[in-house]
Amino acid sequence: MKSVIRLCASALLTAALSLSASGISAAADLLERIKEKAEIVIGTEARYPPFEFVENGKVVGYNIDLFDAVMQGLPEVKVSRFDLPFQGLLPGLQALKFDAIVTSVAVNKKRYETYRLSLPVADATLTFVKRKGDDTLNKAEDLSGRIVGSQAGSAQLKGAENLSAELEASGKAPMKSIQTYLDYNEAYADLAAGRIDAVVNALPNLLYLQAQRGDVFETVPATFGPASYFSWAFRQDDDSRPLADFIDERLRTLAADGTIETLQKKWFGSTTALPTDTLPEPQS
After folding, report:
1. Is 52:101 a contact under the CB 8 Å cutoff?
2. pLDDT tens for residues 196-242?
3. 3-state secondary structure at position 144
4. Cβ neighbours of 227 (radius 10 Å)
5. Positive or negative CA dihedral for 63, 64, 69, 73?
6. Do domains 30-124+228-268 and 126-219 have the same CATH topology?
7. Which long-range contacts (CB under 8 A, 24 or more apart) does 187-196 make?
8. I want to staple 187 with a disulfide (CB 3.0 to 4.6 A). Which of 22, 66, 149, 168 is the partner?
9. Architecture category of domain 30-124+228-268 in CATH
């Protein structure tokens, strides 16, 4: 009888310890769970050079190199990437499909309020690209009455819409139309074919496009709109905060040791100083 009692007590103790351990695991935040499973799952859009794109069957780019440098702070953790059109990334983050979005998320007021955004990873100030030799488009005001393209659901599209409204408010004709595309490669193809007059995007992307296809495209260096940045995105909750804080601290370290400047030179051909204290609140 005593043997049976001892067996029952042992079983109860084992069950209690198991429940306790389960409770600890359940209570662990996202960063701790990532460490436990030795894997982080991120969403990205590999159609946005020079930040992320496919080359010889492999996803490469500025954000890829930068995130690899960030993850040197967690060398035992494997990075698993989901490559999706940009329009599906932020909804996927909210639906818990990824731990974070590591792609070029242009910061705007709505995103700033909805998501926990990282420190800036790159400049996102807007300009536009035109066909090489088009001397009629030299500044933002010249887009009055023109057909302009940008990516559906993007902050760059919103910037183009704002510029069109500003042109109209100043007494000029707004843009004739703004065409939207799933990704920028489609917009560039239409620009090259003469179906649209210009494509609005962030300056680093368009400088890279010109460097790769300068025989077809020419980037207008005069930017428009407020200063803007690209960030990475996390859910805005207590569970995700330690991961976001860890990545921000790694970005500060990489800014201080010159890694970010080196990667900017590699992928953009120039450098831009980025805030390292906090992410500036966007104006719109």
Report:
1. no
2. 999 999 999 999 999 999 999 999 999 999 889 999 999 999 999 99
3. coil
4. 12
5. positive
6. yes
7. 187/149, 187/150, 187/151, 188/129, 188/213, 188/217, 190/149, 191/129, 191/130, 191/131, 191/149, 191/217, 192/131, 192/216, 192/217, 194/131, 195/147, 196/147, 196/148, 196/149
8. 149
9. 3-Layer(aba) Sandwich (3.40)
